[in-house]
Specification:
The chain is of the alpha/beta class. It contains four helices and five strands. The protein has a five-stranded mixed beta sheet.
Length: about 100
Amino acid sequence: MALEITDKNFDEIVLKSDKPVMVDVWANWCLPCRTVGPIVDELSTEYDGKVVIGKVDADVNRGVSMTYNVRSIPTILFFKDGEVVDRITGVQPKNIMVEKLNSLL
């Protein structure tokens, strides 16, 4: 299961991580987010110990969305060494996420 990331724990979990990080910015009312969510959860199990994978509820944690210019959801942000190195907006197949994750390792 993906970690729950909030505005309060974002710096500690994402920016200070010694591993690559994938962050799914989503909202409960967003139907495309419900398609992406199970894929993100699968990847969190598959990449356990190699990549930190979490989810940010955009409705509750607006700071992350504003800081990283998230204008539509779902948006997936990929971080390495505390910096955004890639992003996906909208529903994408699992293999696209896998390619992006593997490029960070």
